[in-house]
Automatic annotation (TrEMBL):
UniProt protein name: DUF6282 family protein
Organism: Amycolatopsis pigmentata
Top-level taxonomic group: Bacteria
InterPro entries: DUF6282, Metal_Hydrolase
Amino acid sequence: MAVTSEAAEALYGAVDLHCHSGPNPLLREFDHVEAVADGARLRMRAILMKSHHHNTVMDLLAMRPALEKYETKAFGGIALNAQVGGINPYAVAMSLRMGGKAVWFPTFSSRQHVAHGPKNPPMAVELPNRIVEIADDDGKLLDEVYEVLDLIAENDCLLSSGHLGFAEARRVFEAGAARGVQRMVVTHPNHVVGATQQDCIGLAGMGVYIEHELGAYDPAGKIKWDPADLLDWIRAVGASKTVLASDLGQKGRPMPVDGFLRVGGILLELGLTAEELHQMACVNPAFLLGLDG
C-alpha cells in the first residue's frame, strides 16, 4: 500500500497551490470549505483555490465565517482568461487588494491551450471563450502585461504562467524577474505547456519553480500517468525547485489529501527521500505563497 505513515509525516503541513474546488462553472466534487476541512487530515498549512473563470478571493470572503473555524488557511487569486477581460490590470489590482495571493496568466484562453489542451470539460454553465494574447502583432509584450507584472511585484505575490506555451511562459518570467517578481511557477510543464526537462532546468536557473500535479499520477484517479516519470522530472530539475500540487477538485476525482498521500507514498517507494517530499509539498509552496516572509 502506497499510503504510509512515513508519507503522512513528510506531508504534514503541506501547501496545495492548485485546488479546483467550487463554486465554479466547471463541475466540482467539493467546495472550498470542504477542501479546507479535509485538509485537517494532513494538518495542511494552506490551500490556494484556483478558477479558470473568476476571482476566487470573492468566494473565500463570502465563505469566511465557515472557513475561519479551520486551521488550514484558504487563499485565492485570479486567472487572466477571457471571462475576466484577459490581461486586465484592473481585475488583477482588485483581486490583490482584496487579499489575492496569485495571478495565473491565461489558462483556457491561452493560444497554447486552445491548440493543445483538453477539450470540452464537463460544464455546469456554458461560457464563451476567446484566445487572450500576451503580445502584439510584432511580438512585443503588451503594455498590460507589464502593468500586471508590476502589480505582482508590488504585492509580492505568486506569478504563474498558466497554460502559456513554453516560449511565451519564458518571456513572461524574464519580464517578471526584470521587474522584481520573486515568486514564479510553471504548472504541469509536460501537459499542455509543452516544456522539456531541459527547458525547465533553464527556468529553475532563473528562480522559477516547476509544479507537477499529483492528480495526474494518482492510480485512483481518471488520469493514470506513471509516477516513475514524475520522479524522473524531480531528479532532472531537483527537489529544491520542484513543487507538488493536487490539481484536484473536478467532479469524480479524488480529494487532494488522498492524492498527496497516495502519490507521495509511491514516490517514497521509488526512492524519493522523506526530506525531498517535504521540501516539494510543504517548504517550496509555502515560499511561493509568501507564508514565511
